[in-house]
From TrEMBL:
Source organism (scientific name): Leuconostoc mesenteroides
SMART domains assigned to the protein according to its UniProt record, in alphabetical order: HDc
Name of the featured protein: bis(5'-nucleosyl)-tetraphosphatase (symmetrical)
Keyword Nucleotide-binding: yes
Record field: catalytic activity: P(1),P(4)-bis(5'-adenosyl) tetraphosphate + H2O = 2 ADP + 2 H(+)
GO MF terms, alphabetically ordered: bis(5'-nucleosyl)-tetraphosphatase (symmetrical) activity; metal ion binding; nucleotide binding
Length: 194
């Protein structure tokens, strides 16, 4: 039994695997493994990190209509309808996790909400771990991933800075709209020295 889910980790894995393709589920398992590693290295509750990592992409493969229904039913920020899955699966997905899986721990739900956009000063260590584990899991092979892993091993804060700088540069190069929370994350973490 885990104190953050009404069942065992094996039960939670089964519930998650029902909602995801095998490709996405394997990613989730790798994120879990990396999150546990980062949690141990950064004095973060390992059980919370494991659960948060397992559920971080729970809603990733849902339809746009599913997200729009939750945004409306939960009276969420109306601006959310202007974004897409990249933003929705974290922010709106946290509400699906609460409602469908019964996970109510606010640290876990916040980590899910923040795992793609990050956050500024409100980003606690658990959220930082999930943000970085999703970026660095061992299936990732983008240019610079080894450097990012090394930096993160030395400093979680510097890893976040590396990720948000490189993610925003990629989005700008692609001329993709940037969610305001991602800009807030950049503005906060780019000033971090250690």
């Amino acid at each position: 039994m885990t104190k953050y889910f009404n069942g065992t980790i094996t039960d939670l894995e089964a519930r998650i695997s029902e909602k995801l393709s095998d490709y996405r589920y394997q990613h989730v398992l790798r994120v879990r493994d990396y999150a546990v590693k980062l949690a141990k290295a950064n004095d973060v509750d390992v059980d919370k990190a494991e659960v948060a990592a397992l559920v971080h992409d729970y809603a990733k493969e849902r339809s746009d209509n599913d997200f729009l229904k939750v945004i409306e039913a939960q009276h969420m920020d109306p601006d959310l309808i202007n974004w897409g899955n990249y933003v929705w699966h974290g922010i709106v997905g946290a509400e699906m996790i609460r409602n469908e899986l019964g996970i109510v721990d606010e640290d876990i739900l916040t980590a899910v909400r923040q795992h793609t956009t990050g956050a500024g000063a409100s980003m606690n260590k658990l959220s930082q771990v999930i943000f970085m584990a999703d970026y660095l899991e061992l299936g990732r092979d983008f240019k610079g991933v080894e450097e990012a892993r090394t930096i993160t091993d030395q400093s979680l804060a510097q890893g976040i800075k590396y990720q948000i700088v490189h993610t925003l540069a990629r989005l700008i190069h692609k001329e993709t709209p940037i969610y305001p929370k991602s800009l807030e994350t950049y503005n906060y973490w780019v000033k971090k020295e250690k």
